[in-house]
Design goal:
This protein is of the alpha+beta class and 304 residues long. It folds into two domains: 92 residues, Phosphorylase Kinase, domain 1, CATH 3.30.200.20; 193 residues, Aminoglycoside 3'-phosphotransferase, Chain: A, domain 2. It contains nine helices and ten strands. The strands form three sheets. It has a five-stranded antiparallel sheet with strand order 1-2-3-5-4, sandwiched between helices.
């Protein structure tokens, strides 16, 4: 069984390839059961290995640097964070026709933390805010500034202007493009982040959050990890949280007006860029993008 493709130019990955990679490099685990994990993730293919491990392989060239970054930084960050994070167990090398480094992680139990699976959404908002506050307190010496390795998460919003405007043009007839353009231009007028860069996860959304028995339990997929403007980690306020939980999240994290406005701009930009790109390849991402755009635009309109 092959993992469905997200990009026209991604590499071919299937069970047979992963089994060959394991046999060549991790023979102690090569005979364990292996099955694809259905995921809306765009950068990596994931396979469950046995009961307590996961194999994660970059699908596309821009995700290649994530392997080294997660292998280096996750063990350093994890002791300071209040939620579980992925634990690297091994790093594979290019082999068997697969061109890049890849990883084996400890399997984390749980299911995607969608609102319908969370017992107390406001409690989840507090937990998310506490996680981000802890992440932002960690020293950033040696941390990577935004770049291709993290899809440029954490850069000033103006750096996203061209792709956002291109996306808005492409979405004519699908969304209210006049409203989207007005909201985006408003976000660009927000003061930039002048303080020192802080650690950012870069891609907080339900697909990268796990819950167990209705409680937020883990944050996964640190491929967009870097140091930069913390506003990009506020995207979760619009891509997942309800209006009530959003306010609890903001109050707990003590976010100033400018950072909050940039965060809403980040959420809008992520939704706008994702929607036309995945329109015909990922229904799950299309739903996510539409929801994020709708929430960000409604919130911006009410805040004017």
């Amino acid at each position: 069984m092959s993992v469905g493709k997200m990009h026209a130019d991604e590499v071919d990955i299937d069970v047979s390839l992963v089994k060959r990679l394991l046999a060549a490099q991790f023979p102690q685990w090569a005979n364990l059961p292996l099955q694809p994990v259905l995921s809306s993730g765009t950068d990596n293919a994931i396979y469950r290995l046995g009961d307590d491990m996961a194999v994660r392989l970059p699908r596309i060239h821009w995700a290649v640097g994530q392997v080294e970054k997660e292998q280096e930084w996750l063990p350093k960050l994890a002791p300071h964070l209040p939620l579980k994070t992925p634990v690297p167990l091994g790093k594979g090398v290019p082999c068997e026709g697969y061109p890049w480094y890849w990883s084996i992680y400890q399997w984390l139990e749980g299911e995607n933390a969608t609102l319908d699976r969370i017992a107390e959404p406001c409690q989840m908002a507090v937990a998310l805010a506490q996680f981000l506050a802890a992440l932002q307190r960690i020293g950033t010496t040696g941390g990577l500034l935004p770049g291709e390795h993290n899809s440029f998460r954490g850069v000033p919003l103006v750096a996203r202007d061209t792709p956002v405007r291109t996306a808005i043009t492409a979405l004519s007839g699908l969304i209210d493009t006049d409203l989207a353009m007005a909201a985006w231009e408003s976000a660009l007028q927000t003061p930039i982040w002048h303080d020192a860069p802080v650690w950012i996860h870069g891609d907080l959304q339900s697909g990268n959050l796990l819950s167990v028995q209705g409680q937020l339990s883990a944050v996964i997929d640190f491929g967009c990890l870097g140091v930069g403007d913390p506003a990009c980690d506020l995207i979760v306020a619009w891509n997942l949280l309800s209006a009530e939980a959003r306010e609890v999240f903001r109050t707990t994290l003590q976010v100033d007006d400018a950072t909050w406005a940039r965060g809403r701009g980040w959420a809008l930009s992520v939704g706008l860029i994702a929607l036309p790109y995945y329109l015909h390849t990922s229904p799950a991402i299309v739903r996510y993008a539409r929801h994020t755009i709708t929430e960000a635009l409604a919130d911006w309109a009410s805040a004017k």
